[in-house]
């Protein structure tokens, strides 16, 4: 969410009626101001076409506490593509700009393009870097089985959102913390805005996820079913979810989307510390459910932790695309 020349121009145009009212301008002056605003906008369009886009070639728009962001961020890190992260407070983007995160902005020829939806971002990365990077990009190769599993896990990620919000939304301090209100790396205006708009954002989230005791119960059942299916897969001793020697985006998707019930070492690779809550601050029922999953599915929790330790933990081999299981 960046305030750029286009945003300033849009604000100028929006504020024109106020300017006209405050200064009591006549029709001629009002029309002149509108023409000025439009000419300004046109000049911005032309200058964007004639001068190549500046700034980083790859930019990932994020919020701190997002498991879908973690999925895309992890794949970018693993690929070794240089990128910068554009960090934002939670929920503002979706409700006021209609964009979800992660959102990837990439320089494509003379223009910047953007892609939302983590799975589509991964498909772009495979298409763009698969041939150029060869082996290094192999973990992104889509197969039918991999895509089917990813779809299932993305749904699980959605249930995870329902589960989390059910627990944290009633606690203002907790929710604001997760949205980044205390994160000094975020723009101050965003931190203030989430605090100011909390009651509205809370209502919107409740409606968007249709949160209710039944919806929460259903989410827990769905999550449990997916974790159980992963447990079953791992029962034959395999090191990766697809059964090969090397980690794939499917493992990354599952591990990243499970971050909120396991909080493994290395989660976010140093980029989400400001919003992580320690176990003693979690709502008790949430902490109980997390512990229950750990207890019921120790193999799955161990798998997530191992994958994180091997790949994301700064103390471990962190990020080297090593064969899965090398450190076990
Ligand atoms: N299917 C989407 C889901 C993305 C999504 O729900 N992202 C949440 C964060 S986890 C979001 O955009 N929230 C809006 C915001 O906080 O601005 C994906 O895979 O990227």
Describe the SSE topology:
Elements: H1 5-23, H2 27-50, E1 58-63, H3 67-79, E2 84-88, H4 92-97, E3 103-108, E4 111-116, H5 118-133, H6 144-168, H7 172-178, H8 188-208, H9 213-234, H10 249-257, H11 259-262, H12 284-296, H13 298-311
Parallel strand pairs: 1-2
Antiparallel strand pairs: 1-3, 3-4
Helix pairs in contact: 1-2, 3-5, 3-10, 6-9, 6-10, 10-13
The site of glutathione (GSH) has 15 residues, from helix 4 and helix 5.
Structural write-up:
The structure is a single chain. With 328 residues, the protein is an alpha+beta fold. It folds into 3 domains: 5-50; 58-138, 3-Layer(aba) Sandwich (Glutaredoxin), CATH 3.40.30; 142-311, Glutathione S-transferase Yfyf (Class Pi), Chain A, domain 2 (Up-down Bundle), CATH 1.20.1050. The chain has helices at 5-23, 27-50, 67-79, 92-97, 118-133, 144-168, 172-178, 188-208, 213-234, 249-257, 259-262, 284-296, 298-311; strands spanning 58-63, 84-88, 103-108, 111-116. The protein is globular. Mean pLDDT is 89; it is low at 318-328. It binds glutathione. Glutathione binds at residues 63, 66, 68, 90-94, 100-102, 117-119, 154.
């Amino acid at each position: 969410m960046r305030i750029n020349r286009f945003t300033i121009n849009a604000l100028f145009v929006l504020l024109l009626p106020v300017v006209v009212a405050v200064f009591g301008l006549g029709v001629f002056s009002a029309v002149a101001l509108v023409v000025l605003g439009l000419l300004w906008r046109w000049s911005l369009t032309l200058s964007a076409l004639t001068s190549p886009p500046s700034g980083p070639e790859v930019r990932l728009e994020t919020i701190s506490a997002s498991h879908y962001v973690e999925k895309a961020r992890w794949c970018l890190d693993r690929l070794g593509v240089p990128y910068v992260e554009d960090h934002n407070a939670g929920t503002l983007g979706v409700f006021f700009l209609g964009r979800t995160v992660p959102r990837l902005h990439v320089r494509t020829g003379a223009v910047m393009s953007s892609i939302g939806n983590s799975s589509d971002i991964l498909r772009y990365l495979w298409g763009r870097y698969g041939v150029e990077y060869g082996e290094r990009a192999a973990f992104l190769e889509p197969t039918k089985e991999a895509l089917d599993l990813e779809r299932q896990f993305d749904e699980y990620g959605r249930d995870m959102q329902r589960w989390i919000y059910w627990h944290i939304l009633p606690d203002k301090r907790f929710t604001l913390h997760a949205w980044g209100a205390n994160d000094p790396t975020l723009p101050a205006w965003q931190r203030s805005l989430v605090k100011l708009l909390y009651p509205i954002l809370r209502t919107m989230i409740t409606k968007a996820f249709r949160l209710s005791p039944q919806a929460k119960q259903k989410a827990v059942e769905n999550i449990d079913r997916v974790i159980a299916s992963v447990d079953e897969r791992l029962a034959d001793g395999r090191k990766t979810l697809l059964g090969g020697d090397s980690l794939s985006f499917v493992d990354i998707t599952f591990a990243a989307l499970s971050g909120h019930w396991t909080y493994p070492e290395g989660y976010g690779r140093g980029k989400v510390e400001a919003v992580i809550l320690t176990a003693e601050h979690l709502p008790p029922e949430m902490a109980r459910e997390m512990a229950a999953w750990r207890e019921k599915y120790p193999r799955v929790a161990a798998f997530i932790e191992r994958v994180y330790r091997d790949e994301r933990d700064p103390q471990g081999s962190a990020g080297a695309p090593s064969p899965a299981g090398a450190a076990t």
